[in-house]
Amino acid sequence: MKKGQKNAVREWLYITAGILIMSAGIYFFKFPNHFSTGGVTGIAIVLGHYIPSITPGTLVTIINVLLLLVGFAVLGKSFGIRTVYASLLMSGTLQLLEAVCPMDAPMTTQPLVELMFAVGLPAVGSAILFNLDASSGGTDILAMILRKYTALNIGVALLCSDIVITVSACFAFGMETGLFSILGLIIKSLFMDLVLDNLMTRKCFQIITSDPDPIEAFIMETLHRGATRLHGEGVYTHEGKTVLLAVVSRHEAVLLRNFIRKQDPAAFMIITSSTEIIGKGFRGVN
């Protein structure tokens, strides 16, 4: 299998894993506690209270399918296949869990603990999808439509819709559940940013050395990364030096740092973290 095909398969596996993590958090912790923290699942939880004959998982499927049809009608070919796959996989997973593992009550008597899982697991899954430029569909589809036809701030619009959905839980399930839902919405925003930053963090190396060749070979042949060579001069000694610039993952950073320490103990290293690396081998320009 070629490298491009391996990367594509890996990305689809990550998307699948992200959706399964989201679905676990939604089904086992969000649905039983009626935590409505926005999005399609939040709408399904509130509607499920007023339409008890339809399960939340079925409502998620109905809403997602309707939004997908609207998306295809309005956005046409620009509608991403990843969004379709993720949306349908989440709907199918929730309905499958309802069939094989029915839940009539929360798993524990600790709503705050369950709120952490109800928020944390979907946030991790969403961050994985976002890191791959994918989406679980739902209200994101409405955002795509609004982006196409209006100058409305999409982030503000989605936040406002989430707030409305969350506050509606106060009327449907009472103030206790409503306040837990509002707290969950706040934690979700903070937690997703934290997870996303950790997923996207890369290590940037600036290596000042008099013997660059072994280090360059290690970067290219062992880590399969690229590097940039610059020529510098020490201010005090006026001795010629080579400056290597390289960006690697966290795991690769440990290997590179240890190699340089053994190969060239006199080398000077500056290692910084970045969550925005754009270019070949990392995030695309578009």
Briefly summarize what is shown.
The chain is an alpha+beta fold and 286 residues long. The protein contains ten helices and four strands; from the N terminus they run H-H-H-H-H-H-H-H-E-H-E-E-H-E. The protein has two domains: 3-199, no CATH class; 201-274, Alpha-Beta Plaits, CATH 3.30.70.
What does this structure look like?
The protein has helices at residues 3-33, 39-50, 56-75, 81-100, 111-131, 139-149, 154-173, 175-200, 212-222, 250-263; strands at 202-209, 228-233, 240-248, 268-274. It folds into two domains: 3-199, no CATH class; 201-274, Alpha-Beta Plaits (2-Layer Sandwich). It has a four-stranded antiparallel beta sheet with strand order 2-3-1-4. It contains ten helices and four strands. With 286 residues, it is α+β, with helices and mostly antiparallel strands. α3 runs antiparallel to α4.
Give the integer mean of the pLDDT values: 85
Helix-strand string: HHHHHHHHEHEEHE
Strand content: 5-15%
Distance linking N and C termini = 26 Å
Total helical elements: 10
Secondary structure topology:
Elements: H1 3-33, H2 39-50, H3 56-75, H4 81-100, H5 111-131, H6 139-149, H7 154-173, H8 175-200, E1 202-209, H9 212-222, E2 228-233, E3 240-248, H10 250-263, E4 268-274
Antiparallel strand pairs: 1-3, 1-4, 2-3
Helix pairs in contact: 1-4, 1-5, 2-3, 2-7, 3-4, 3-6, 5-8, 6-7, 7-8, 9-10
